[in-house]
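Support request, please re-run this one:
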Amino acid sequence: MTIAHSPCPNDTFIFHAWSHGLLPQAPELQVTFADIHLTSKWVSERSFDLLKISSAALPLAIEAGYQLVPAGGAVGYGCGPLLLSASDKTSVADLAGASLAIPSRHSTAYRLTRKWAEQNLSSGFGEVTEVLFSDIMPAVVNGDFDAGLVIHEARFTFERFGLHQIVDLGQWWEDQTGLPIPLGAIVARDDVVAEHGIDALAQWCADSVNYAWENPDASRDYVAEHADDMDADVQRAHIALYVNQFSAGLGPEGLAAFDALLAD
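Re-run finished. Output below.
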């Protein structure tokens, strides 16, 4: 079985056990690492059995013949994307007409931004540009953009760049809906679901994350190997924030969050 997911600590932590043959009941899992902005586009190619995609790209995945696996994704409280600027004087009003760097137009972060802007920016943003997520903060520091929409570990590191938070979109979402933020989802191709069943796929994801929780040292080197230059403290904080009860199973609350995000 094949999967494409990001090299971020939450994904490597969750899928370490399965991809390393530590789940005797699960089929062999071969991993391809790619950022979520790529995997969200790969659904149309149908090349992978499983994909970790942005939750906002779920309609595209379903149209391409994938189904949501209700485990293994990234859903939670207090983990949303942030709107940042280089100046601590920037206000919400200053974002009207501002140039904005975003990780992907298919990202959950951008969908949240558009929902937020509909309520808070009557004239909207100015030019919106897709930028590799790891390059967004340096670009804002350099003055290439008025503001940046950041995800992943940037929540823990933006102050090191001298950047300032304008809006916590996750907090805004929680205040609006009372639901967790559905950032990323695992999807399975329809023929894979037909062969194994969605319940089995979800169970293998849950078994893998439960193994990781029960054996936290087992995945440490694997996580660090793929975490780029992220220090150990940031890796641990990343896992603690993005891996939670919804990783083992979405349940009604997690599924309701997807419905709310994707509602027009």
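Residues 47 and 56 are 20 Å apart (CA to CA). DSSP finds 13 helices and ten strands in the chain.
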